[in-house]
Amino acid sequence: MSKGKQDTLFVGSLEKGMRILGVFDERRIEMGLTELAEAAGLDKSAAQRLTNTLHKIGYLNKDPETRRYSPSLKYLELANAYLWSDRFVQLAMPKMIELGRKLGERVNAARLDGSEIVYVIRIPTQLTSFGAMVVGRRLPALTTSSGRAMIACFDADARKRAVETWPIVQATPRTTLDRSKVAAAIEQAARDGYGLTESENIMNEIGIAAPIVSGDGRPVAAVQCSISALRWDIARVRNEIAPHLIEVANSIHLPKPR
Amino acid sequence: MSKGKQDTLFVGSLEKGMRILGVFDERRIEMGLTELAEAAGLDKSAAQRLTNTLHKIGYLNKDPETRRYSPSLKYLELANAYLWSDRFVQLAMPKMIELGRKLGERVNAARLDGSEIVYVIRIPTQLTSFGAMVVGRRLPALTTSSGRAMIACFDADARKRAVETWPIVQATPRTTLDRSKVAAAIEQAARDGYGLTESENIMNEIGIAAPIVSGDGRPVAAVQCSISALRWDIARVRNEIAPHLIEVANSIHLPKPR
DNA sequence: TTTTCCGTATTATTATATAATAAAATTGGG
DNA sequence: CCCAATTTTATTATATAATAATACGGAAAA
Question: Does residue A11 approach strand D to less than 7 Å at its CB?
Fold first, then answer.
């Protein structure tokens, strides 16, 4: 009823199947049938049929011993398809590698997806937490340098709405939970032309990011650098890193706003 | 009939939906409905319902202008889930970063999936082709250093079968198409303890890889390094790179053979 | 051993996806 | 710029194909 006319074009089984595929994450590495059913919000019967199908077509590994399911390498094949399809990634990749070499620090590129940023390129030249090395990682935009850099490109209205409504999750003791302080950081980013965080996601990590904007001024991505606060101080990061990030960001022009 | 009893546990709609998700690759970046239907081997009606569903749940982007579909950032979210789930990736990641710093060259880690290798870690410190920088990339095992390193760990029978039946595709003029030469390269790899290629995938690129074996001697992954043949010669690669790769490979012990 | 939990297999029932077709919209050629 | 051709979107009747309930078997725990 409420969904209206499109109902016949919506394939419920597929949606449920995708719920299963998508239920795995950094916390849920592998699951048995019952656990999986519960996590995906499905009854056992449905979970059985769908996992069976996904296993047969190769998207889920099934441990013959424990009968537990986990993501298969096909997950990565999909990622590959995405990376080739994203014009920005193709353009940015060589520049990021260059930048990583020049700075000798970890550089990343992120896109905005709803209220979260998603890292699409990672050039890890230093050790950190595993989550900071892998592609596809999602973080709440408000507390990341990339997110702030991009939000700072919004008009005042959208900026306000983002700051007030988008989620914040505490990652470290120093994550900014006070939304007025987040707003201030974003205003600052708008003035500077780059976003900045310190110890908000990983302790003693400084994040700095410059936005890439499309022709109409809307942010489409960000170029970011993560640096140890133990070896650098913020002033030096502002002076020595920011210009390079901005230079790279400005050198990337996207044909389609996407 | 031929499928037998499991038929009721197989959800066809899900399989078809996954066919659509998986049809995108480096050649097929974005597609209209008809093209998509044909590429996935579905009739137009099915393609319509399934793309509609996948778009609604966020797995496919749909350009409002052209009505063409392309992979969404959700593809990368899945990759993230895989990477967290793979014990090997977690163990290897910091070592790969270290290795990349030490060698100053591009290092990768790959897994075997059927007759193909899949790159699960890439540390790009030098510029190359885009395909050599992104995760999830698949290549025929027989003509890659990682593939040869792993196949060399098979017993004689399996090795023979692989050499005779696994696919080979010509990537450069110098890709080894002669299977007896491939066999020889693999025997050599078995003696050396590492696999080697030159210009077989990218012209003037030397690939060298050491296998990681589980407790029962079966290969589970490979640690690889790609080097410019213009700056290095093979003898030097053998002398200076191989020991480091083997050292790293030996330092990785997998709890579960998977 | 007994009990409990989890995964697997088997049904009848019907909801749900299907395929064919029609309508609308977009593109390209002349 | 208009018409023809192609592609996308919307609408149906129909039966296939997915469903949910239940029963079975095996493994682990008590």
Answer: no
